[in-house]
Structure formats: C-alpha cells, structure tokens
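Sample intake sheet
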Amino acid sequence: MPPIDSNATTQLVLIAGAGGLVLDMMTLWEDSKKKKADQTQKNLVFWVFFIFWPFAGAGLAWLYIVDGSTLRPLLAFSVGLSAPATLQAMISRSATAPAPQPQSPSE
C-alpha cells in the first residue's frame, strides 16, 4: 500500500465533513418549507445528530483512505452526504445477523 499523504487525507476528510454539513443544511431547508405544525422539533437529539453527521461523514472518508481505497474529492463529498444511509445499512445488517449459538459442553 502506498504511503498516505496527510495533506490530501485532511482535505478529503474535510470535504466529506462538508458533505455531511450540506446534508444537514438541506434537511433544515426542507423542514423550513413545511407548515409549523409539521416541522421537526429542534430538540437536543436533533442538534446532537446535526453535529454528528458531518463527523460521521469525515470518519467514513478517513476509513476509506486508511483502507487504501482511492478517494477523489467528489466521492469524498458523496461519502459525507450518504453517511446516514451508509451507517444505517451497516447497523441494520449487523442487527439482523443471526446470533451465535452457544456451544454445548462436550463430555
């Protein structure tokens, strides 16, 4: 595996984080067009995830880079945008995996 360029890595991780932030901003924009009664409540949980998604996108981009995958700026941005869907798919796959069966004691 070729050495990781820390400057390029930082740029790509920031671009992915920007993708997550754009996702958050689009969510706010779409919500602002709804009637007040239909808008999402902006409580603590909302704001925690508002901050979390850009970091999740940046973290996924970093994982791609550390794994040795070739990541270009547009793909990094897309990784940030799709972080919620990517993580939801990963979690739902692991949650539906069959639990290991306990081993019976051998005699």
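Comment: Residues 20 and 54 are 4 Å apart (CA to CA). The chain has a mean pLDDT of 88.
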